[in-house]
Prior knowledge:
Chain A is mostly helical and 163 residues long. Chain A has 7 helices and no strands. Chain C has 2 domains: 1-30; 36-248, Alpha-Beta Plaits. In chain C, helix 3 packs across helix 7. Chain A binds chain B through residues 58-59, 62, 66, 114, and chain B through 115, 127-128, 130.
Amino acid sequence: MLLRKIIFVFAVIAFFPLAAYADSLLPALPKAKENYDDKTKCVEPVEVMRQSHMDFILHQRDDTLRKGIRTKQHSLKECINCHNAPAEDGKVASAKDKEHFCSSCHVYTAVQIDCFKCHNDKPANTQYRHKISSQVFKQHKFATQDLNQEMLELLATEKEGQQ
Amino acid sequence: MKTIQFTELEGRSAGFFALMAILIAIIGAGLVSALMMHGEGHHITGMTNRIVWGTPHVFAVFLIVAASGALNIASIASVFGRTIYKPLSPLSMVLSMTILAGGLAVLILDLGNPEHLLDVPLTQFLYNSEPARWTQSVFGWNFILYSGFMVIVGVYLWFSLVPQYKKYAKAVSIFAFVWRLALTTGTGLIFGFLVAREAYDAAILAPMFVVFSFAYGLAIFSLVLIPTYVWTGRELGEILVKRLKSLLGIFVAASLYFVIIFNLTNFYSAAKSEGIQSFLLFGNNSYSNAFWIGQILIGGILPLVIVYYPKIKARFALMLAASMVVIGGLSQMYVTIIGGQAYPMDMFPGKKVESIINDGGIATYSPTIYEVLLGLAGIGIMLFLVVFAMNVLRILPESLADKDVDPHHSA
Amino acid sequence: MSQVKESKVDQYRRSFLAQSTAIAGMTLTSGVILNSVAQAKSADQPASDKNRWGLLIDANKCSTGCNTCVTACHEENGVTGSGNPETDPQWIRKVKLTDKQTQKVQTIPLMCQHCAKPPCVDVCPTNASMKRADGVVLVDKHACIGCRYCMMACPYGARSFIHEPTTEQIYPRGQGTVESCTLCVHRIDDPNGPRNPACVEACNAEGHKAMWFGDLKDPNSEITKRLKEYGGVQIRADLGLNTGVRYQNLN
């Protein structure tokens, strides 16, 4: 009996820190900027995204680069824009940080990705985006009269995501 | 003729462990260099956007070319029926595989993104709707040729070591011989197909590389064989050494012949003779020095003299000549690969060309320690693997004394 | 963005495009090309082999001291380096040519020539070096192993290897892969219609107007008309690569 007790105590002592440690590593997923769709939330239903996001991204990557198809639904750039938006203090997580949306899970599951060796791990450079949208504005000026403020804004925000 | 007894190395002496330790250190240094190149980027090497292939490629291509040549001993024995070389066949096969492994390791470790190699089957066949285009790439063929070489020589070795399969070994040996010719041809054509560059763009590069491979492979083979027999105290008779020695002489002479034809052809073209040809041969630069002193003198003329000068002890002559052929081979690769890139491409005939990357001028290149260590690691890997193989496989004849290799020999 | 929103955007876009056609002349002079509505390709459409994008460069108009196209290109595409020209990426570079006979000096911008039969594509072992249906030659960095064989094969030295780690990319580019001029492919794919590449835009803005961008397969495009009228040469025409970039007054 005594032996069992001792083993139990040792087991608790041994596993407690481990369990606590594992707990602290559990991915803390940052919240996305907005819902793509009120029903599915993300660009596909959340369960589907959890399981198959890489398939969507892989498919999109070949379509975009090799064929020039630039839809935004499955674009990695849009993932980053929405899931790694700047915090209120203006700070943006880098892929090296655990706080980065992608890294939070990928560190936990020990699945290494090399997307960010080439892709920007942060939303597109704000200064650059400013430049682009001002250009868009110039472009749209010709068609003015009927384009109200709302339309312009929509077109401009869509434009930013195109890159 | 007595039956040849093959045995493993004992592999327990202090000398053996010291050798392995040194080789591991050389390999380790190369791996660290490669890791640094991948962490920091290739800017820590001397390679640039003008000299895109540098010292690692000099070593890698030299080893890959030599690999197919090292198989020659086995081919001569079984394809061409020279039974005197038969006892050396297993070592020849193993060595050709380990040299190739060393060369490929350098090539792969130098890649900017070696991990993407794992994706190649995916990018080729699964995700792209376009037809696979590797069939157009001579580099792509070489991937097949290299891996095929490993498999075929592996089977060849297996068949020759296992008594009940020996009867099939001859058929495999012919296939292996054809394959090795294809492999060196492919390596030569990596350069031969570069139509844009004057230094290459010649079909003769393919057969020339094949002939080079005979000499380089035999040189490395001799440099492995003799020390192994000396250090393990096994007998190595004069007859074999003399045979190898004159064989090396023939290969070196044939290489020189090709070099002369290749360069004479280039001199006949006015554009080339005034441009790249005078630069590489008479530019009074490191390339012309490497050509005349390295490739021609040390790698060609001196080995011929040593090999055919009767008063030098055969074993010493072979060692010396083989070492020189290796130095000559590395010099040749330096001139071909780096010299060929250093000379500007002639985009605008009749114009003086200037730009931020010195388009019209000679590109500068000074290799850094990382590249050299990576290249040397290729040789380290090759030696480590061959010594390891000698240690676990029965590939070395107990004795290569004259009475054991030559039935007509009378002591 | 929701589906609803997206279709709304389409609606706006259509009405916008209808209006912009009417003022196409104005857009042309402003340096922004909306070639024609027929050429505008929506985001879900793949590049088509009905187009072949190319550049025409007038060597006489290219100003000797000017480097604007280079700066604009590297700014647009976020091309950065360490300051060593030999290892830094050069998507586009100015080349100064002095005739050995007459001592005439000209400068031209040199970049990927977007060959119809690109040697870089032929030699690539992994299919990373590729040509889009509309003739734009690109590197698929997902497949690039960084062997640099394409750089050995390119007759123009137009490709660069990325020698350092990259951060803050505007378009994907990463250490250990090869890159080159993309003809500003993101601008070609603009759903509002193809726009001039950054180099052309900058050259026009500077007032030199030495570069034209357009569809070589469209008989009515300005580039085709100019080529037809004044002719244009290919660099290393002897190689028979049928380049998408042509030069005028190069003599």
